[in-house]
Amino acid sequence: MAGTLRRACIMGHPVAHSRSPMIHGYWLKTLGIPGAYEFKDLAPAEFVPFITNLAGNGYVGGNVTVPHKEAAYRTVSSRDAASEAVGALNVLWLENGKLMGGNSDVHGFIDNLDDRAPGWNVPGCKALVLGAGGAGRSAVYALKQRGAEVHIVNRTVSRAQELAKRFGAMAHGWDEVPRLLKETDVLVNCTSLGLAGKEPMQIDLGPLKKSAVVYDVVYVPLETGLLAQARKRGHRTVDGLGMLLQQAGFGFRKWFGGDPKVTPELRSIVEADIVAKTPK
């Protein structure tokens, strides 16, 4: 590639809503690294030809979002342990000419929890994960890696059972939530309930012990109904924006190097954008 300017991109269809260019642009500027991070809207038929000639197209890597994640998983030469375990990837980079894939959601999930709720991993830590989709898979894997006992609740119990079997966790139906809350040290919402435009999360935190941490991976709105209820009860809360910001660092290090940090300034920039674009 000509010159020293390293370029990465966010690949999706559509993709203009992504906040990734804002985050990576901030780090490139503050770290003084010559580089660029761009939007790349690719129709499904364009995606695989594009990534199999990533260097020829002028890029050192990028993020992958819907609808290309499955195609990316199938196409890469090699995957990291997290993406193999979870069965999904969202970061591509070139290593010795080979197309590599990784899952930054796993790193973002646990780094955010460490950052916003230090000491969460108490002896015998029990985590309750609501939801068995992609975010749930990343959360369960990350929590198990840290030695927590993980319980999964999902409306479709068979999906929770499938995920539990994969990672050595325990599966339950939604009706068991009140009982499970009594023993929970970390409660994590990995469903879309509470997301702007979706139905709210209907859960009574009454049985939850006061020392428990409540984590919601949803970040639009910034404070979901679940987090508002938890905050009023005095629980430590962890929002999904931190996960978005923390996961971005994984790809940045692969493409540009340096040591990107999630600073209050970066968080406030992205917060302001979310507030401006979230319907009242």
Overall pLDDT, averaged?
A: 95
- Number of E-type strands: 12
Termini separation comes to 46 Å
Strand line-up of the largest beta sheet: 2-1-3-5-6-4
Q: Which percent bin holds the helix content?
A: 40-55%
Major sheet description: 6 strands, mixed
Helices and strands, in order, run as EHEHEHEHEEHEHEHEHEEHEHH
Oligomer: single chain
Rg estimate, integer Å: 19 Å
Structural class: alpha/beta
Low-confidence stretches: none
The general outline is globular
Number of helices: 11
Task: Tell me the strand percentage band.
Answer: 15-25%
Describe the structure.
The chain is α/β, with parallel strands linked by helices and 280 residues long. 40% of the residues lie in helices and 19% in strands. The chain contains 11 helices and 12 strands. The chain has helices at 20-31, 44-51, 69-75, 81-86, 104-116, 134-145, 157-167, 177-181, 225-232, 240-256, 264-277; strands at 6-12, 35-41, 61-64, 78-79, 91-95, 98-102, 126-130, 149-153, 170-172, 186-189, 213-216, 236-238. The strands form 2 sheets. The protein has a 6-stranded mixed sheet, sandwiched between helices. Strands 9-8-7-10-11-12 form a 6-stranded parallel sheet, sandwiched between helices. Helix 1 (20-31) crosses helix 10 and helix 5 packs across helix 6 (134-145).
